Structures are given as C-alpha cells and as structure tokens.
TrEMBL record:
The gene is LOC107935646. It comes from the Eukaryota. SUPFAM superfamilies: DNA/RNA polymerases (SSF56672). PANTHER family: NON-LTR RETROLELEMENT REVERSE TRANSCRIPTASE-LIKE PROTEIN-RELATED, RNA-DIRECTED DNA POLYMERASE, EUKARYOTA, REVERSE TRANSCRIPTASE ZINC-BINDING DOMAIN PROTEIN-RELATED. This is LINE-1 reverse transcriptase homolog.
Amino acid sequence: MAEFYKTGKLERNINSSFIARIPKNENPNDIPKFRPICLVSSLYKIVAKVLSRRIREVIGAVMGFGKRWTGWMLEGVSIARAAVLINGTVTNEFRVYRGLRQRDPLSPFLFILVTKVLHLMMDKAEEMGIIEGIKDVIPGQSVTHLQFADDTILFYRADEDVRSLCTEWLLIGELPFNYLGIPLGADPRKISPWNGIVERVEETIGLEVVGKCD
C-alpha cells in the first residue's frame, strides 16, 4: 500500500478476481439459474475503501480532484482483470473493460459523477437550443431527461433521423419486449404479459410458499 501511495501503480494481481456462480435455487439446471459474483482481492478493497471515503466527504460539492488522486482512481479501475471459477477450475484471466463492478465501494460514487456530467450536458444543450424537452409538465419548466438509480430517460423533439431509426427498428423488432424482465409496451391490465414473471417468482420461492400466499 505504501508503494501504491508513492508510485500510483498497482500490481496486476492485486486487482484480479474470480467470477464464481451462485445457484439461485436448490436445483439449478440451466445457466440463468446461477447468479455470477465477483470475488475481489482484499488488498484492492482496502484501496477502494480509502478512496471512496475521500469521495464521500466532497461528493455533495462541485469540485475537482488532484492529478495524483485521479491517477490512483484510474489505476484501480483500468487494470481490473478476472477469471471465471467453474467447479473449482479457473479459466485464463481476461481484462474487465467495464471496470465498475457491483459491491465495489467506488462504483456508486463514480457513477454519480458521470451521471451528473450527463445532467449538465442535457441542460446546456437545451439552453443552446440543440434539443427541446417536453413543455409545461412542470409550470414554467421543460423536461429533457429523468434519472433514477441507473436508469436515464431522454425527452426531445424527434427529427427525421430519429423517425427513420424508429421505422427501421420496427422492421426487425416488436412490442412488447422485455427490459430487466418486465414487458414494455404490453397492456399491464392483462394477465398474460406477467405470466413469465410469475413463473420465475414461483421457481425462486417455491410452489409451497406460493400456495400459502394465495
């Protein structure tokens, strides 16, 4: 850790991890029945925890970070590697190009910083007349985007290019389609769109519990 503080460089194996499979139910018989988890080195967790505590103190204010501190952050994210752990057998390591991992103390803070930039860019684009949001949803204001957790919805006036893309998509896609397991574009008042979700819930909590809930 002292060497990392001085040089800003981490040994590659410090940020290597194993990807293991955890069964979602008692008798998993298919890949979707397993949930992947990432087993991260304890040494990297120490580094990430120190950096995340620093972010926590200043995240409420708009400010920058020094070049050295930013280098520490980038080093931890950019060298991430993983190997898949299957029945005790380890595959070859591969680079994790999407370096923000779940349960990493740094991930939520880095995500917030990036979404804040997107928020400012959208406001600036509207101010410059590049995009136009929905008017009068809130008296005297327009809405260009909504952000909640890790979801972002953009609102702007469609031009011919956007209409053309939508038309092309309709030639190969269809509604409803599933997003995070939820059917989008279906009538939520009907029972049939929810059948798949009900089946997955029954598989997860067991038919006996489902019967008691009825």
